[in-house]
Amino acid sequence: MRILFITATRLGDAVISTGLLDHLIRTYPHARFTIACGPVAAGLFQNVPGLDRVITMDKRKYDLHWLDLWKACVAQKWDLTIDLRGSAVTALLRSSRRVIMRGGRRPGLRLAHVAQTLSLSPPPVPTVWLDPSDVACATTLLPTTGTPLIALGPTANWSGKIWPVERYLPLWHRLQSAYPTARPVILYGPGQQERDLAAPVLAALPQAIDAGGRFSLTEVAAILRKCQLYVGNDSGLMHLAAAAGTPTLGLFGPSRASEYAPSGAHTAWVAAPGPEGDAAIADLSVSTVAEAALRLLAETSS
Q1: Are residues 152 and 290 part of one domain?
Q2: 172 CB contacts (<8 Å, ≥6 apart)?
Q3: What is the secondary structure of 70-115 as a DSSP string?
Q4: Under a CB-based contact definition with an 8 Å cutoff, are residues 148 and 179 in contact?
Q5: Is the peptide bond before 122 cis (omega within 30 degrees of 0)?
Q6: DSSP 8-state secondary structure symbol assigned to residue 264
Q7: In the 8-state DSSP scheme, what is residue 44?
Q8: Which of 111, 151, 174, 231 has the fewest Cβ atoms within 10 angstroms?
């Protein structure tokens, strides 16, 4: 059985789609999968069971990336095509069954919208597939003692989503007062912009483990899996933490928690006061974040 799975360009949306992909893998355990996604998300799928290949869709003028995808897929007869981008490509491929999620913004969790393509309720939660080298990377980087590891994600792809970086030091003081042996783990994406955003937090917390910028997505997921908590902005990294099974606290300002709250067994979110979708994240207080973080830690460490 051959399945084509077309998912998102952005990391967060791609992570959200992994729950649906995992459902397909479990439903069709002998299927072979081809996954099409944006370059930022491609590494997320490298360990998918039954993977034939990942097609990286580099955006081109005049939507020519869709023509590239058609050329890459037209020779194959597909048993099932899942298109979460709402494109016309699957209509032009030979496929026994087509499932297309139409585009456009709508109320409710994005996770539920993805699940509705196959009428799944409750929606399957996101996941991540690791291999032994990912686990070995995390084991090498992180201490193997009983030290509690608390991951912080101070970056995001939009400045409006970023909680002021100077808040992380007082936040850490609050967390460390309850967990004196805890150690921070700072995560951020590749590139100088991400590094610059994380630099003030790394400087303020000299005891922190720098776990940003140089790891693959699955290595980052393995690092997150060894942490007792993740606190960070609404971002792809937040969704990856939740998919890894790490207790995850998402910080929301002008983005909508009703659409993009982290999903998983141990997840929570806090939002700045004000109208959803139009709140300033700078109005989200250290006390609010600290109380929610400590509550999530207490719930998951008992």
Answers
A1: yes
A2: 152, 184, 204, 205
A3: HHHHTTSPBSEEEETT--SGGGGS-BS-EEE---S--SS-HHHHHH
A4: yes
A5: yes
A6: S
A7: G
A8: 174
Q: What is the 3-state secondary structure (H, E, C) of 163-182?
A: CCHHHHHHHHHHHHHHCCCC
Crossing angle of helices 168-178/286-301, nearest 10°? 40
Domain span holding position 8: 2-116
Residue 171: both structure tokens together: 């936040």
3-state SS string for 144-164:
CCCCCEEEEECCCCCHHHCCC
For residue 169, which phi and psi values (nearest 5 degrees)? Answer: -65, -50
pTM for the predicted model, two decimal places:
0.96
Whether 55 and 84 share a structural domain: yes
Does 62 reside within a domain?
yes
Q: What is the pLDDT of residues 180-232, one digit of tens each?
A: 999 999 999 999 999 999 999 999 999 999 999 999 999 999 999 999 999 99
The residue to which tokens 């008992």 are assigned: 302
